[in-house]
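# nightly structure sweep
# worker-07 picked up a monomer target from the shared queue
# config: single-sequence mode, recycle default, output format = structure tokens
# input follows
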Amino acid sequence: MRRYAKPIVVADDLNLLRGQTTGVVTLPRHLDWSGAADYDLDSPGRIVDLYRTVLIEATKPDDLHSFLDRTVLTRLWPSIWLPPELRRTWEQRFPELRRTVPEVPAA
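# output follows
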């Protein structure tokens, strides 16, 4: 772990994630300072970018509650690239996010 690692922020409850699910969302500067802070949630690539950005850059649970949605997060979770420690922390808190591996029948 890095010496000055940014704290990982995790929602207290997935049901508190009630962010917008369609249209365009503009993230505040503390979450996205890139100059491209507008995310079209109807564009598959941009919605994944928004979720990754919010998960990595959140400084308080309200950031998560305001910009993420439980149903969308659950659907996108396996396809979002996240730092391993962040993914592990979220999956420990919410086991339903863990990737499921299909069982292979015994030969």
